[in-house]
Amino acid sequence: SSLCRNVGDVLDIRVKECRDLLFERETSEPIPLCAIVLEPHIHNQYCERKDRVCTAPGSIREMEVLTVIGSEVEGKEIVWLRGQPGNFSPINGVETRQYRMQAHDVGHYISCSCGSETDDIIYAENYLGPVEPCPPRVSDLHITGECVEEQVLEATYDYTGGREGVTE
Asked: pTM for this structure?
């Protein structure tokens, strides 16, 4: 299984492993150099790579990784932002092209800015979210009882992630 809903239905997402999901998608839609647009997209051989944040289509989830792609951001400071529309704050300690969404991002929207001391700061034209919690993951499973027809087995488990009282 995966941390991303419907990941099996989307053929152009590369999943390294469940603990390290990296979504790199591409498109032929040109995006101006003066803007960062946050949206799912699909690159092809005709695409001019510009400043983008890559994610899977649909909702974004805790533990997914957003990546800013484009040579135009080389050497520039990237600041990831968290909050609600109209009220974003920088995410402290995150200045790389990739950002893995954490539990404290759940319920918030994610955006970013890009710039340097000599350039104007470019803010993303939009934002992604709200970030949803990842599905729960079983971390410890114990099954007791005899494996005999019509015998009742008892299972206990511990899990991490997800929202209490919510299952998928």
From this structure: 0.55
